[in-house]
Design a protein that fits this description.
The protein is an all-alpha fold and about 750 residues long. It has 36 helices and no strands. One of its GO terms (biological process) is mRNA 5'-splice site recognition.
Length: about 750
């Protein structure tokens, strides 16, 4: 690419077939140029540029490739490089290994641009929000004189982090140092301010734009820049208004007004002049000729600075400034609470997460769609690893009718930013089903079953339920049977008893065939070791089946589990055994006879009451004796937090069948806040990655298994028993990607039926 072509790319934007990354917002705390170089905050405030974003510098000299320059990505790797590549290929989310690999490659292969390109392309495909590494990548290209590659990297960068003040600033500085054509540089500045000019922390970019136009001494452009700044509630607004007034007072209005403004003023001036009478005109003409004077030219009139005109000129801008300051007073609290506006793999604290929700609530209530989109994009840099914000963004866009923006955000979430988290894929499946995309919904479930979180009970249940809603009962049963077959092949599968319990219940509710449901349970006993969870589910299952209840079948199973037995290798804890005994007693209270109740209560007293300490019994107050057993045990259950019951697999469960004989309060899902809006997504992303080696989860290069991150299950009875998401691959994991806090427990029957 020759200089003229690269200038066109800068001015108009890069649209070649090179790899690009997803557009997203980066509200990285903007700082002065010096602080951008040093990675520290400037005098105006802001936050330190994180190490995760690299250390970028401006003014990198462009050099011609020397004799020692190597362009061979296939050169021999050092042992350390091989070790680090093996880690990131096995687990592409291992951030520390990536940064160590970059440092090692730069250390031993500084002149091998092909190797450097390979590692940066792979890393930035996985972490496109790290704007500092985009800058470092561009610096490497500049050092070997690859001007077209520098522009290409910057263009990929601004597509990857479109709303980053910092990356646009670096790009503009590069253009100023490289090109002499003011139009090229101005076009780039204009592209930048379209995206980030209203960012509260956009001052460094505006300062650089002002500095450039001041060097050009284009006062009308400079005045227009100040006018645009004063329209927006950004940082340092007082300083900008003060500087604007100083400019207006030191330059004539003819210099400050644009050609359009001057033409408007001239027309208004002509219209305001009253046409003199013919006699007055002749008299005035004779007088002027006698005096030897003539009418001042229009140019002189326009060049004069009338105090009233100047006051009016400043007053218009002052009104914009006052309005912007009023809005700033409403958002300053939210802005000051944002302590980490940049991307980081470590979790955010709860206060900052809540602040983002509150800020979004406020902006959505204000009703400015453009502000909503840009704030969501800023939020989704700092909160990129939290599915809840992506889900909120998608729902916001959908509710506003912007389905293209909703699809844009969902694609970015599921393919890049939270692609390993089951929650986003479950949401995607539900949304696609609601929108009539059944094929897409099935694909989302299959991805969960095969790669993201094989054996996730919630995914199995929701997938089967969807097929049943669609009238595909055989397919629904097949979902359970396929997963059960896989789990049978595993030794001591924790999921298998839960699957059997849920499958039997599902069969009865769908077909109303009690015998088929019982047959599934009987089959389960041949393949699973009875556990507290499984027995709880079995007891509960009997409550929803038609009479007669098979108490004679249940009793020996319960007894074998609650009695300590070395022969049967009973692994249930004493707490679990006592809870199961209480659940069974309550079941018999409703469906058993006097003899069966007596037998169960006597057994319970013999096994568990002697182990209660006297001090524990004395602590029980009179109020506790007046309350029901369920209430007392609910209190105990909540305080001790024992393992969750398997009867969770039963949605429409009566409240009395709670885990540990306890009635757990049902947690209803919180209503969604009013939705919001997204950033421009580059649809060519998936295709273009192949041009850069397709690393980490991308078609060519290497395959990076996506190891799911464990997420705690809901704890309340009627919710799922605790089940960690199974790992898709046994890959080394050093620094897991941040995970959002677990959602409050939700009732199973409130969620899926």
């Amino acid at each position: 690419i020759v200089m003229g072509e690269s200038q066109a790319m800068v001015a108009e934007g890069y649209n070649a077939s090179a790899a690009t990354v997803e557009s997203n917002v980066d509200s990285s705390q903007s700082v002065t140029n010096v602080s951008l170089v040093n990675g520290t905050s400037g005098p105006e405030g802001g936050s330190t540029a994180p190490a995760e974003n690299g250390t970028a510098t401006d003014n990198v000299p462009v050099t011609v490739p020397g004799a020692g320059h190597v362009d061979n990505a296939g050169s021999t790797l050092s042992p350390e490089e091989e070790r680090l590549w093996s880690i990131v290929k096995a687990n592409s989310s291992e951030f520390n290994a990536w940064t160590a690999l970059i440092e090692e490659t730069e250390r031993i292969s500084q002149d091998n641009i092909a190797k450097i390109r390979k590692v940066y392309d792979a890393f930035l495909a996985e972490f496109p929000l790290c704007y500092g590494y985009w800058k470092k990548y561009a610096d490497h290209e500049a050092r070997v004189g690859a001007m077209d590659k520098v522009v290409e990297v910057y263009e990929r960068a601004v597509q990857g982090v479109t709303y980053s003040v910092d990356i646009w600033l670096h790009y503009c500085v590069f253009a100023i140092n490289t090109y002499g054509d003011p139009d090229t540089i101005r076009s780039l500045f204009e592209r930048a301010v379209v995206y980030v000019g209203t960012d509260f922390l956009s001052s460094p970019l505006w300062d650089k734009y002002i500095e450039y136009e001041h060097m050009q001494q284009d006062w009308s452009r400079l005045a227009m820049i100040y006018t645009r700044i004063l329209e927006n509630p950004i940082q340092n607004l007082d300083r900008y208004f003060s500087n604007f007034k100083e400019l207006a007072e030191t330059r004539s209005l003819s210099e400050l007004r644009s050609a359009e403004e001057s033409a408007t003023v001239t027309v208004a001036s002509d219209a305001s002049e009253t046409a003199p009478s013919e006699s007055d005109g002749k008299a005035d003409e004779g007088k002027s000729q006698a005096d030897g004077t003539s009418e001042p030219s229009k140019l002189e009139t326009a060049g004069s600075t009338d105090p009233e005109e100047l006051k009016k000129y400043i007053g218009i801008r002052e009104a914009l400034y006052i309005k912007a300051k009023e809005f700033e007073s409403k958002i300053i609290g939210f802005e000051m609470a944002i302590r980490r506006p940049y991307f980081h793999v470590r979790p955010l604290n709860v206060a900052e997460l809540e602040n983002w929700h509150s800020y979004l609530d406020f902006i959505e209530s204000d009703g400015d769609f453009n502000k909503v989109i840009k704030l969501y994009e800023r939020c989704l840099v700092a909160c990129a690893n939290y599915p809840e914000y992506w889900i909120r963004y998608v729902l916001s866009m959908g509710s506003s009718g912007s389905m293209d923006l909703a699809d844009n955000a969902l694609t970015r979430a599921t393919q890049v930013f939270v692609k390993r988290q089951p929650e986003i894929h479950l949401f995607a499946a539900r949304l696609k089903e609601q929108n009539g995309d059944i094929t897409g919904a099935r694909a989302a479930f299959q991805l969960l079953h095969s790669e993201i979180s094989p054996g996730l009970l919630e995914a199995v249940i929701k997938h089967a339920n969807m097929e049943q809603r669609l009238g595909n009962v055989d397919d629904a049963f097949s979902v359970y049977e396929q997963v059960i077959a896989v789990e049978k092949g595993k030794e001591n599968s924790i999921l298998l008893p839960l699957l059997y319990a849920q499958y039997s219940r599902f069969s009865y509710l769908v077909l109303r065939d009690a015998e088929k449901a019982r047959k599934i349970i009987v089959e389960a006993l041949d393949h699973v070791q009875p556990s507290k969870h499984f027995m709880e589910a079995l007891i509960f299952f009997e409550t929803i089946l038609p009479p007669p209840r098979k108490i004679e079948y249940l009793d020996p199973l319960v007894e074998n589990l609650i009695k300590p037995n070395v022969v049967t290798q009973n692994t249930a804890s004493s707490t679990e055994r006592e809870e199961l005994s209480l659940i069974y007693i309550e079941f018999l209270g409703l469906f058993g006879d006097v003899e069966s109740i007596k037998k169960a209560e006597d057994r319970h007293c013999k096994l568990f009451l002697p182990h209660r300490s006297r001090s524990e019994l004395k602590k029980r107050s009179a109020d506790e004796f007046l309350s029901s057993d369920r209430t007392k045990l609910a209190k105990t259950y909540n305080e001790t937090a024992p393992a969750q019951p398997v009867s969770n697999a039963y949605p429409n469960a009566p409240a009395q069948w709670s885990g540990g004989y306890a009635a757990q309060p049902q947690a209803w899902p919180q209503p969604q806040a009013a939705p919001a809006q997204p950033q421009q997504w580059n649809p060519a992303y998936g295709q273009q990655q192949a041009a850069y080696g397709a690393y980490g989860g991308y078609p060519a290069g290497y395959t990076a298994p996506q190891a799911p991150t464990p997420v705690p299950q809901a704890a309340a009875y009627g919710a799922y028993p605790p089940q960690a998401y199974p790992a898709a691959a046994t890959a080394p994991v050093a620094a897991p990607v941040q995970q959002p806090a677990a959602a409050p427990p939700q009732a199973y029957y409130n969620t899926y039926y």
